[in-house]
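User: I'm putting together a teaching handout on how multi-component assemblies are represented. Below are the sequence lines for each component of a complex, exactly as they appear in our records. Could you produce the 3D structure of the whole assembly as structure tokens, so the students can see both representations side by side? Please keep the chain order the same as the input.
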Amino acid sequence: MEQSFELRRNDYSLSDDQEAVRQAFAEFFGQECPTTRVRAAEPLGHDEALWHQLAKLGAVSMALPEPAGGDGATLVDLLLVAEEYGRALAPVPLVEAAVTARLLATCPGPGTGRWLAGNAEGTELTTLALHPVRPGAPQLVPGGAVARAVVGLAGDDLVLVTAAEPPRLAPNQGTAPLAWWDLSGPSRQVLATGDAARGAYRRALAEWKVLTAGALAGLADAVKRLGAEFTKTRYTMGVPIGSLQGVAHPLADVEIAVAGARNLTRKAAWFLEHEPDARPELVPMAFAEAARAATTAAAVGLHVQGGFGFTLESDVTLHFRRAKGWSVLAGDPRAELLAIGDRLAATVH
Amino acid sequence: MDFSAVVLDDELEAFAAEVREFVAAHVTDEVRAEERRTGSGFNLALHKAMGAKGWIVPRLDRARLRILELALEAADAPLITLSTTRLVLSAVERYAAADLRAELLPKVLAGDVRFCLGYTEPDGGSDIAAAKTRAVRDGDEWVVNGQKVFTTGAQNCQYTFLITRTDPSVPKHKGLTMFLLPLETPGVEIGPIHTVGGERTNVVYYGDVRVPDRYRLGPVNGGWAVLRGPLDEEHFGAGHTDGLADLNIGSSWARLQRRGLAAAVRWARTARRPDGSHPIDDPTVRVRLGRIALDVEAALGTPGPMGRVRVSETLIRGSADLVDLVGPEALLPQGTEGCWEDGILDYAHRFAQGTAIYGGTTEVFRNIIAQHVLGLPRPVLPGSKALVGAGTAR
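Assistant: Of course. Below is the structure of the complete assembly, with chains in the same order as your input.
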């Protein structure tokens, strides 16, 4: 936790450059990814053309180390892209590709350049297994149904596992391209081992959580707007339902949750980029808070639209399914609270 | 975006040392004990010492301001009356007649003149524009009749920043006039009200109080505009975005919760359960503590009206949970045998409830969020424009 004698800034505002990044990707997703395109990509949850287009804009490559083709962008810039990706529910493996590319750049091995380039250029996906490998126990891997390579932690080893073809889609409520991967088989390449492996994997997982938290905050903001807009024009008893406190106050609660989650996520990204050891508890905080905000926002956004909100025709159901779908991939979001508590136990004296 | 540590150069270090010295000298255990006993939000010697330092309205750069603010807060300095004085002073500087301004300003800066907020009325609650306290012109004077509640610090102040009704026949926001009413005036009667949070506030009765026109602030029936400045600052803060200001007006309450949380962590590390283990060894305990730490961090990072609601609810929920966790000893007040860390958990639990009411209830803030952040239509409420029951005002 923060030291009492240390004076820190608490400034969440975006610089002009950051605002330009945010706006550029907001425009891209706004133009290229209407909800019709999100629906068209179901049930796989992957749009090859959109993914290629996004990668060409540098969404993944910009935050690679410069020798690996990076552009000096930080995790904060990546987070701003992730917020817009989440807002649009874009059917692209942005977070997995970005995190895995950065991991491969940190722990390169013979031939990994090809996999890194595939992620950076949007041509071939290598993704990340979010749970440690247990022998003989396959796990659901995000992006796993559109990837031919997965990086994961097996014991003390950071391993890369490849397949001739992506495994079959595991159809799921979140309409994400999940698939079962068994990373304990023989055909795997060790990229790092021991502390280096564990450290790099832990870092990648933290980045995945922060970026996914950003996507969840963007999703929550979008579904909140959908709900709020509906209540401005839907009338009951002669008044717009948004003027009724029973409707307006739950939406206000969502605004409170979204505003908090967005800032907390940005702060976690900043620390992960600039001072990763100073406030490690911010990552579980951001993830738990964003997951909660998205879950609440989706439920309220759906509910204020009444029966319509519950129909498949309504776009809020797209947000509703992904809010949960993205939140549970890395495990129980409430388990993050234990990580925060562990840190408290170790640092408060 | 910037969360970096401010580099304290020699001059800033010297200032921080000066502040520490000031706090040690003037925010003593006796001052804190008196505050716990009286809940007055004020200590005359401390206030005068602030004046001697030029800190009633400090003309300091932003880093120094922040160092000063956080040090005073961490020491539990009783400065509620200072904060109301500052809020009113901006309206005085803008709207008071030149001679009144010239008379008061040096006294305020020296700590000799202090202001409180005469807003709320017994049946008005957060709807302060519904004020019924009447001011009627009589030559060069006004005759004030009515009653205010929650005039916190009236017993410490020389003037109250009073909302009065000067025209009950027009929509409620258009018939208000503000006064800086001297509390010494005959007909003003101050009575204490004590809160479950340990604060002393007041009911103030105004019976045929004659106040010269020179104490009027701004135009007759133009009071709402005069009030807006201080009210917006009370609702939203001053709006600095350099990372050296709070994002919302409840941040000091969130920091109180952080101190309570730290006290509970220390309890969990030292207390023993019947089986000999420490509570902190239990993951369910660490999850609960983690939840509260998350709430505090999120509350401090949530801006504006959203943050104000988030802080209050964080404090109400979290302080209750910490009491559950620690058990009955968490309810022992400061100074009693066996109380935990100066009774901070007892205090926070009681104090929390008021934070959802001060300066407008959390429902008022949800209305603000709904209308001004989400752009939802205004509620159509009977009496939203009219002054309900104006004819019965005393």
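A couple of points students might notice: Residues 390-394 of chain B have pLDDT under 50 and may be disordered. Chain B has three domains: 10-78, 113-230, 251-359.
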